[in-house]
Amino acid sequence: MTEVQKLGPDVSVGASPIRILIFQPYAQREGHFAMYTTYTCQALAELGHDVTLVTTRLDTKPYLSGEAKFRRIEAGQSRLLQFQKRGTLLEGLVRGLSIIWDNSRVLFRLLRIARTDRFDVVHFFDYEPLSTAALLRLFSRRGGRRLPPLFLVLHAPDTSLQGHANPLYKLYGRLARPLLKRIVTGYVTAITVHGAWQPGELEGLLGLAAGKPSLIPVSHGAILHGQPPSRDEARRILGLPYSGIVFLSFGMLRKDKGIDILIEAMGRVKGDCKLLIAGLPFDWTEEAVREMIRAHGCESRIVADLRYIPQDRIIYYFSAADAVVYPYRAGHMGAVGSLNTVLAFGKPVIASEVRELAVLFRESHTGILTEPENAESLRRGIEQFLSLTPLEREIMAENGRRLAADDSWTAVAKRFSEIYQAYSSSIQ
């Protein structure tokens, strides 16, 4: 059985130590923000680098078995999100204002630090385009010490947010794209992305010249740790007394991720199975999701756990599942952050044939591809999995484990170190 451990012992330094200043304005928020930041910063520090993280607030205990080996400078936690009501126009406004506020105060803090202390590189793990463009411009005009080489992690290449249901997000997104272009062409040395297809996509969306700035694919590490429980034990812990096939949909419920298509498909599936939905509604309210389930007559075969899943509980959801479903719409532009975790735990995947998912599963035979935005195609894919023999499912699982074996957080950190060395002439 595959075991994915918390970050542990030191590894040998493969390059000269570097002083790294990392910017993450959203570590206190639900989602991948804290996980990605903690694992990457710790892995960089374990390579011998001097890592300073500037953020809102970050609790590393859910992710690390020991103490964090990187410094944290925290600007506190925004109180704006407590006033939101999901799925409403007001929610979009409050969330948007809180994102801008957190980005502005944390970035202001980072720029002050960068002006008074020396770092070899600055790496943005997240950003908000409007306030980032304004503050970087102000910093550059004030004179004095310049920023060291600036690197940017881009989790999704399209900032236009046209896949979201909230009209305020769409309006903001139209303004964000030209600001992103201004940031990456005016200040950024290199951009790292999570998929091999994303560099070309980003160049087309922003109208960038090829290779300016450099766009470099870097894998996403597996997000779970510890010895997985058995399928039956995980189901017992989750209160899921069922011995048949369970499909899992995991993650925030955004429109571009296609949960509505999956619910419709489940209403058509013939065969003994259940769907476990685990994630926080984003483009819908909780009641809207439950109404979709009722409308398609599949209350008896869908278990909906509609909330943010704490880090220490995630392992049970993946362990309880027989396969994971990614019913993404054709316009989905983000990375699949949980994919390496799914593969590391030997879970076959049923996925829409979009971008990186299409390339990966056509070549690796780790899952079943379906036509995006087509509930009937998804229904056939689910039924195809139900018809597989245990041996056929295990072959898919083993193919996935092999794919995920090389995508540790240490490997991610080593790749970042190589990028810093290659694109920063000041680093010896």
Give keywords:
428 residues; Rossmann fold; 14 helices; alpha/beta; disordered N terminus; 2 domains
Give a concise summary.
By secondary structure, the chain is α/β, with parallel strands linked by helices.
How many distinct helices?
14
Q: How does the major sheet shape up?
A: 7 strands, parallel
State the share of residues found in helices, binned by percent. Answer: 40-55%
Number of strands: 13
Overall shape: it is globular
CATH class call of the largest domain? Alpha Beta
Q: What is the CATH fold-level name of the largest domain?
A: Rossmann fold
Strand order of the largest sheet: 3-2-1-4-5-6-7
- How do the SSEs run, as a string of H and E? EHEEHEHEHEHEHEHEHEHEHEHEHHH
CATH level-four homologous superfamily name of the largest domain: Glycogen Phosphorylase B
Number of domains: 2
Write up this protein.
With 428 residues, the protein is α/β, with parallel strands linked by helices. The protein has two domains: 19-221 and 408-423, Rossmann fold, CATH 3.40.50.2000; 231-404, Glycogen Phosphorylase B (Rossmann fold, 3-Layer(aba) Sandwich), CATH 3.40.50. 42% of the residues lie in helices and 15% in strands. It is built from 14 helices and 13 strands. The chain has helices spanning 33-46, 89-116, 129-141, 167-186, 198-206, 231-238, 259-266, 286-295, 311-320, 339-344, 355-364, 375-387, 390-404, 409-423; strands at 19-24, 50-55, 71-74, 121-124, 150-154, 188-193, 214-217, 245-250, 273-278, 302-305, 323-326, 349-352, 367-370. The strands form two sheets. Strands 3-2-1-4-5-6-7 form a seven-stranded parallel beta sheet, sandwiched between helices. Strand 8 (245-250), helix 7 and strand 9 (273-278) form a beta-alpha-beta unit. Helix 3 runs parallel beside helix 4 and helix 6 packs across helix 9. The radius of gyration is 22 Å and the shape is globular. The protein starts with 18 loop residues before the first strand and ends in a 5-residue tail after the last helix.
